[in-house]
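Lab meeting tomorrow. Look over both lines:
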Amino acid sequence: MHKSKELQEFLLEKAWQLTEEWYESLDKSETSGVYGTKDPKAIKLLKEQNYSFHLHFCNLFVQDEPVFLKELEGWVLKVASDEQHLSTPEYLIVREFFRTRDQYLTFINEFLFHNQDTYSQEVIDLWNHYIVKTIDKIVVWYIERYHEFSLKRLQSQQEMINELSSPVITLHEEVALLPLVGDIDTMRAKYILEQTLQQCYEKGVNKLLIDLSGVVMVDTMVAHQIFQLIESLELIGVHAIISGIRPEIAQTAVQLGLNFDNIDVSAKLANSIQALALNK
């Protein structure tokens, strides 16, 4: 690409103007994400991030592409992992990159107006081409990083949800309760098995009430996982008592040929707690 120190300096002088004009023309009606924020600190940070982008992008006209992209990498990683940007829909972020691209194309024309007959049409077309090409490349790069950080955050949130959705609650001394609520798929059933064994061991539990009254449906794999949990608990010295089995779950268990002969079952959780209190 034809390099131009004059164009770079012209754009650097316009960098803060680019940021201010961009923010003033920003559609702030979007309440989801960083662009609609009313927080002065968040707005200040958003402008600083945009201004920093311009300081990097202006180097496109003086640096070789590999060097230019390497220096821009830090900005991309930092903004793509920013909590405010992670909560912003991707299509809005892409839209702002394209609006920024249009800003540069407009300022190229302004630069040429002040430097008439200095640059050939071939050079001008080349500049415009590289602006479009580079912004497109940055968009793809940014979305890739954004996607990676979003997946990591989603995985972290899912782990927290799983942990909260399978709590072993101590009721009295060595007696605890595991209330299960909602749908249990194979992955969650596996997580419940691992976490319950660990929590029972750490809490010194010897009796665990497993309440299924909040579970709507159990498939074949999950039913086997629950029975595997009971057997695993027995191996570490924890006696399990099941309560709250809904009729449809009982029907599924019978159809699967699951054997309840050696398992304590109670219709309601209150009955199990009362029975334990009487035994005590």
In short: The chain has a mean pLDDT of 84. The CA atoms of residues 170 and 176 lie 4 Å apart. The beta strands are 169-172, 175-181, 207-214, 239-243, 264-266. The domain at 169-279 is CATH 3.30.750.24 (Transcription Regulator spoIIAA).
